[in-house]
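Hey L., structure's done. Input below.
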Amino acid sequence: MIYDVIVVGGGPAGLAAALEARKTGAQKVLILERNSELGGILNQCIHNGFGLHYFKEELTGPEYAGRFIEELSHTDIEVIDGAMVLDISPNRVIHAMSKTRGYLQLQAKAIVLAMGCRERTRGAIAIPGTRPAGVFTAGAAQLYMNIEGYRVGNRVLILGSGDIGLIMARRMTLEGAKVLGCVELMPYSNGLNRNIVQCLEDYNIPLYLSHTITEIRGDKRVEQAVVSRVDENRRPIPGTEIVFDCDTILLSVGLIPENELSRQAGIEIDNRTRGPVVWENMETSLPGVFASGNVVHVHDLVDFVTAESQRAGRGAAEFALHSDKENGDSEFFRIENGEAVNYTVPQKVRPDHVGKFVEIFFRTNNVYRDREIRITSGGEMLASFKREHMAPGEMEKIVFPKALFSKIKNGAVTVSVVEAGKKEQK
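Output:
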């Protein structure tokens, strides 16, 4: 059977992409989801704060996912759950295993990758010490508590101040555990400011910036954690050790886009985002294969995931409906990372595929105040945007009008963050 669009992943990205592809005109749309139900990570995110941008109201994670699942139920979009995708070929053939249908070989005119991301573990950051029970990633602890109904510990120390770690600090406190603190390697938090306030400050949970865990102690279960201050090179400073008596350590030390399938398919990967390099419509370097959500770059707001995935769904449907029309070697320009910018998405733009503007997403490499975002080309400033506050934990979005594309030189623009009023270097 040939499908117009196959979406790999049934989380918020996959749901939005599939619905938008169907609305755009794709007749046969299929979602492949490896879990037993749709919704992805939102199913275990029972806290509120979702949907403020998209729905203009505050929802929990399951409520946000439920809105899209309800909409999906009124369409003819096919869903196969319990299906693990094994391989994607360059000619868009998907090989998968389903617990109900067995081995599947599916042909798609277009594919949307929406596999999400995974957490870094203790092994990825190499914390010294013994290896007792009681060390969890924050997401795993969230799953145990919110889905399975288990409290994972009584005296808890959290390493990393990502949003999941901050939210779990509050969640553990509400379940009766004592959260001793949140330890962050960087001199700033990696979470949203609202989560720092609502999850730490409101519960008097201390945040130790420029600190890290330098030893875990315990026999069968965690008994102690040694925390040290770090210098400007992030190296522990001898003599600054603090010993915490705890039985549980939660790790909130970063998320990694889930791109094994992308790499196997030969898709170009951005070393900074660890996700696919994408065009303005979220198409990857493999024609007809699109990507969106946390598989491209880690988002802090699901509302942005939805908007980005709708763009991918539209692109996939249009490719499927007009795959007979070759794009050829259409002109394009690159979006490059300038001063204080960690990455940009998209990385490449084809002006012929852009309506009135292109949205550019990026993250800064530090906390900044009173700054100016600049888009430059060949030493000339094309556009600027002022910001009072910017932080790595909060993704930035700017709009680059198509009317300015004619001023681009050497096929590239650079996005930079500089001091407000600073003169442009020629």
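The two ends are 57 Å apart (CA to CA). The chain is about 20% helix and 35% strand.

-- N.
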